[in-house]
Design a protein that fits this description.
Elements: E1 8-12, E2 17-20, E3 24-30, E4 34-40, E5 45-51, H1 71-84, E6 93-98, H2 112-126, E7 131-136, E8 141-147, E9 153-158
Parallel strand pairs: 1-3, 6-7
Antiparallel strand pairs: 2-5, 3-8, 4-5, 4-6, 8-9
């Protein structure tokens, strides 16, 4: 797909989600966090979430808003945006990125990056989504660029191991 003449540039901070159309480019920087991208190839709609942890340590109160810092809630935010666009989640391609080890951890402890990766895959399965691509784990951080006009996701991985 050719690049549109005008592009909206979005930089996601940890805990943020964004959903847009073919005039959007979404960027983020990931360490132990994970980003999930969704892209509708026919309509060229999509979104990204950048979550920090798999879930809250305490239950969410009924009146409390969804919080994109947590995987389960971030995916629910994206799912709601998919429905608001009048589309179905299963028509989207899902890709996963991040979960890098930023610090050495004890071999007997499941680290935050590992828990984030497990959570992303479990949520994909729960929603019945096929993961079309992933770049997960390892050491260091990643720069992610997602172009909604083409569905292309560009990854620059800065390894520390």
């Amino acid at each position: 797909m050719p690049r549109p003449e005008s592009i909206i540039e979005i930089f996601l901070q940890p805990g943020e989600c964004w959903f847009g159309d073919e005039h959007t480019r979404i960027r983020t920087l990931l360490g132990s966090c994970v980003a999930v991208t969704l892209w509708h190839p026919r309509l060229r709609l999509g979104g990204m979430c950048h979550y920090m942890l798999p879930t809250r340590t305490r239950p969410r109160r009924p009146a409390e808003a969804l919080d994109g810092r947590y995987a389960d809630e971030a995916l629910e935010i994206l799912r709601a945006q998919v429905e608001t666009a009048g589309t179905r989640l299963h028509d989207y391609q899902m890709k996963l990125f991040g979960g890098g080890r930023m610090f050495a951890s004890s071999p007997n402890v499941v680290s935050v990056p590992e828990r984030n990766i497990v959570s992303a895959r479990a949520l994909a399965a729960m929603y019945g989504m096929h993961i079309s691509a992933e770049h997960l784990g390892g050491g260091g951080h990643r720069q992610i660029v997602f172009e909604l006009w083409s569905g292309g996701v560009w990854v620059r991985h800065h390894e520390t191991d």
